[in-house]
Amino acid sequence: MTHHASVYQLDKRSQKSWHKIRAAFEVLVLSERYDEITAGDIIEKAGVSRSTFYSHFENKNAVLGKSLHPPLSVLANCIDPNSPIEPLRQILQHFWEHRSFCRLILTGTPRKAVNQMLIELLEQQIIENLNANQKQILISEAHAATQIAASQLALLDTWLLGKAASSDKKLAEAMKKTSIGLLTALISD
Length: 189
Hints:
Layout (H helix, E strand, L loop, with lengths): L1 H30 L7 H8 L3 H7 L3 H17 L9 H12 L1 H7 L2 H26 L7 H20 L7 H19 L3
Helix pairs in contact: 1-2, 4-7, 5-6, 5-9, 7-8, 8-9
């Protein structure tokens, strides 16, 4: 019984550390250039030890990646025609509400990390989709994932930068249809 309680407390403590690190990271991204932020800055701002930080993350890019994994997973799920559109609409709405932060992470060095994570998530989804439907693709899954990620991020960019107005609902529909359409076009007959 004591063993379970200590494991639960460790999980709780670990979650608390993760939330502190993430909050510190977000504050730093909004106030400094991403390239100038160091792990030491995050550690100091979060008020955690170096060992605590490094037990969770390799570096600041890993903090960005873990922060974005849930919303990017929703984007990657767009290629599944059976996935509901509401989670995508909610993520887009969240991005819009936090667009100053999103604009910063969709440019420069952080953009590369976002793009890579989205490609990896899409590639996993594509492989699962192809296996489930016993289909073949014309190009590699990595190439297809790269093309779909570029399309999704282009839609996000133009919307978040105010270059093209749209409701989150219409954008979600467009992103889903485009993602499915691209994958469908790449499936061999």
